[in-house]
Amino acid sequence: MDTPLAVRARGITKCFGDVVALDGVDLDVASGRIHGLVGPNGAGKTTLLGLLLSLAVADEGQLEILGAPAGQALSAVSGFVDSPGLYPSLTARQNLTALRGHTPRTDAVLEEVGLSDVADDRVRGFSLGMRQRLGLAAALLTEPRLLVLDEPANGLDPAGKKHVHGVLERLADEGTTVVLSSHRMDDLEALCSEVTILATGRVVFSGPLGKLSAENAELDYRLRTSDPAAARQVVADAPGVRVADPAADVLVVRAQEPALDDLVLRLAKDGIAVRELAPVVSPLEAAFLALTQQESAR
Ligand SMILES: Nc1ncnc2c1ncn2[C@@H]1O[C@H](COP(=O)(O)OP(=O)(O)OP(=O)(O)O)[C@@H](O)[C@H]1O
C-alpha cells in the first residue's frame, strides 16, 4: 500500500497584488518523512509554508493537509514561518507558557531542544540559534502530526544543527511529518530524503535527492597535481574536459565522470600525480543552482 500523504497540493497559486508568489504549485509529502523546500530568495518557500500552517489561503488550487482540506486539521499542525514569535522580556519557560499554556511537557521539550540550562533566562539575551530552538520547542509542545519549519537551521552552529537534526529525525521515526525550508541544498542533504525546489513561485524539481544528482552530470572539479603546468596541457588534449575558468590560478575542470576518469589515467600516464580532485560545490548544490538559474532566466 502507498504511504498516505501528509500534504497534497495541486495547482496552488498565491498572489500579493501584482506579485505571483506561487504559480501552480503541486506538492506531495508522504507521512513520516522529512521533506525539504529549497529555493533562492523570493522563490515562494515562506508563502507555501504559511499555507501549510493555514496562516493564509491559496487564491487557486487544492490543498489537503493530513487527508483533509487545509484549515480543518489545525490542531495537528504546528511550526513557524519567518522566525518564531517570542517575547524577549520573558524567560524561555515563560515563553512556552505564554504561547501554549501550562503543560507538563514544558521541561521535556526544553530538554529535547537542549535549552534546559537556560530555561529561566530571558529570551532577550538569546542568540538567533537559541531562539530557533525555542521556536521548535514551542511547536513540539502540541505534539503535531505535521511540523512546518521555516529555515530552522538559521543561526545554528554545526553542533546545534546536528542536535536539531537529531530531534527532527526522531520525530520522523515516530511518524511526524516534517516540512522545512532552506536556501541551501547542502543543508538539506543530511536530513531529507526528498526535496522540492522552488524558483520564482514554480516547482522546478520534486522528488528523491538521488534522482536530482543523477540528472545533473557535468560538474566543476578542483584539480591539484604535482605539476600544474603540465596538467593544464593534458587537460587541453583530454576529450570531454574543459577548463571552467581559464583565468583562475587553481585549475578547475568541467566534465562528466567518465571523461574525468579518463583524464586521471592520462595524468598518471604522464607521471603527474593527482593530489586533489573534488567537486567545487556538491553535486546536489550544483544541480540546484543549474535548475534555479534556468528558471530565473525564463
Ligand atoms: N505579505 C506579502 N506582501 C507582498 N508580497 C509578498 C508578501 N509575502 C511574500 N511576498 C512576495 O512573494 C514572493 C515570495 O516570497 P516568499 O517570502 O514566499 O519567498 P521565500 O522563498 O520564502 O524567500 P526568502 O528565502 O527570501 O525568505 C516574493 O516576491 C515576496 O516579495
TrEMBL record:
The keyword Transport appears for this protein: yes
Q: Does the keyword Nucleus apply?
A: no
Query: PROSITE patterns, per this entry?
Result: ABC_TRANSPORTER_1 (PS00211), ABC_TRANSPORTER_2 (PS50893)
Return the InterPro entries for the record. AAA+_ATPase (IPR003593), ABC_transporter-like_ATP-bd (IPR003439), ABC_transporter-like_CS (IPR017871), P-loop_NTPase (IPR027417)
Q: Which UniProt keywords apply?
A: ATP-binding, Nucleotide-binding, Transport
Could you tell me what this protein is called?
ABC transporter ATP-binding protein
SMART domains for the chain: AAA
Annotated GO MF terms: ATP binding
Residue ranges constituting the ABC transporter domain according to the UniProt record: 7-225
Extract the Pfam families matched here.
ABC_tran
Q: Which family does it belong to?
A: Belongs to the ABC transporter superfamily.
